[in-house]
Amino acid sequence: MKWFSPKRRYLPDVFALLLLSAGASAVVAFPLWRQILSQYSPDGRVEPVTWLYVQSLIISAIIPGLVLLMRRALVRWLGIADNWLASLSRRQFIAAIIILSIAVRMMVIALLPSVLHSDWLAYHELASTWADTGDYRSQGLLTAYWPPGWPWVLSRLYLVFGPEPLAGYVWNLCLSGAIIVLTFLIARHVWDERHARWTAVITGLLPSQILFTNKLCSEFTFAALFLASVYLALRASSGRSYWWLSVFSGLALGLATLTRTVTALYPIILLTLFWGLRNARPVKLGRWTIIVVAMAVVITPWCWRNYEVMGRFTIATNTGVNLYVGNNPQALGTPAEPDARIIDSGNTSQERYNDSLGTALTIDNVREQPVQFLKRLPVK
After folding, report:
1. Which one, of 59, 74, 1, 69, lies nearest residue 25 by Cα?
2. Angle, helices 165-190/193-205, rounded to nearest 10 degrees
3. DSSP strand E in the chain: where?
4. Is the separation of the CB atoms in 171 and 157 below 8 Å?
5. DSSP-based three-state secondary structure for 41
6. Do 55 and 26 touch, CB atoms closer than 8 A?
7. What is the rounded distance in angstroms from the CA atom of residue 303 to the CA atom of residue 310?
8. Which tops the pLDDT comparison, 8 or 161?
9. Phi-psi region of 88 (alpha: psi -120 to 50; beta: other; left: phi over 0)
10. CA 330 to CA 319: how far, in whole Å?
């Protein structure tokens, strides 16, 4: 049993070889992986695009395998890089990482083709219509299906530069710098200068952040607004003289929620964090109240608009449909057409009905087939 002792230095090498073997097998023998993983699908079928994602994920095991295999050399290289980062002044570091990150992203915009499809195409059409008509419409009808934040920003860009997706790509490029700076500031507030610099480096060179630059996606606008809200909330909670920053934190959080509704529940998480801080708890709760009120000021007018148009006080009406797309009897872990009753949004009342029906059908399906729901999770 000594061979399995954690003190043995060659165990990481063995694990590295296993990762490399798994990644290589996904290149030369992927049909075997498909045969093994198909059993996790309820009916044994998986969409081709899902297999592409799964194959890419398994192949990516090569990266940690190489890291483990070259760990000693990497430690030395990281030490050299750490010393070099420490030798730079703060301004020099921020300028260097932003210039490097923007240069890489500009190459992506210039060299990699981008095709508008799915949500990206929808955002382009919504923004073009909004710029032309002044209303938030889909197929000529008032809509609330998608949150309005990103389509509104894109429509303002189209008003200035014309309906060219390149305007959105350049907007993403500019926000990349803001995201790097905000990440640096948050990490420095929570940890220290050294960790903040490495956090900024990782954010600036993260492949997913780079490759999404030439996509008309809402992630960049959302990330910039949400990180701004988080940083302002941290500053507001650090001293009595910074209470006014809570207002701007709430405003940014409201705009982020109008971009992607995932942050609608963030105030609950923030309340839990503030309540756990026993020191100056009344002050923290006061800051939280200001944030929530400011957030509500931003969100409420749009929810009221949807109430007048759709008869529902909500930010968007796509929640139920999205839930059922991934959790219907025919779902295979990828987007699919689940039910004709909730696909055709012929009018605003149908859009509202789709939202309610999708939510109800999702709950019923998960309740009736919990095992299939759990088996579907690995391929999502």
Report:
1. 59
2. 160
3. 137-138, 141-142
4. yes
5. coil
6. yes
7. 10
8. 161
9. beta
10. 19
The interaxial angle of helices 245-259 and 149-161, nearest 10 deg, is 90
pLDDT digits (tens, 9 = 90+) for 127-172: 999 999 988 988 888 888 899 999 999 999 999 999 999 999 999 9
CB contact at 8 A, 126 and 177: no
The C-alpha atoms of residue 153 and residue 168 are separated, in whole angstroms, by: 9
Rounded to whole angstroms, how far apart are CA atoms 215 and 213? 6
Q: Provide the whole-model pTM.
A: 0.81
Q: Are 291 and 250 in contact (CB under 8 A)?
A: yes
Question: CA-CA distances (angstroms) from residue 54 to 38, 57, 134?
Answer: 11, 5, 42
Calculate the CA 100 to chain-centre distance.
Answer: 23
DSSP conformation class of 345: -
Bridge partners for 137 per DSSP:
142
Return the pLDDT at 125. 93
Q: How far apart are CA 150 and CA 319, in angstroms?
A: 17
Single out the residue of 7, 2, 9 nearest to residue 72, CA to CA.
9
* Other residues' Cβ atoms within 10 Å of the Cβ of residue 66: 15
**pLDDT exceeds 70 at position 343:** no
Q: Which range in 2-16, 78-92, 323-337 is most confidently predicted, on average pLDDT?
A: 78-92
Q: What is the DSSP letter of 213?
A: T
- Per residue in 216-226, pLDDT (tens digit) is 999 999 999 99
Do residues 337 and 343 make contact, with C-beta atoms less than 8 angstroms apart? yes
Please choose, from the candidates 363, 233, 353, 210, the residue with its C-alpha nearest in 3D space to the C-alpha of residue 286.
233
* 379, two tokens: 């391929």
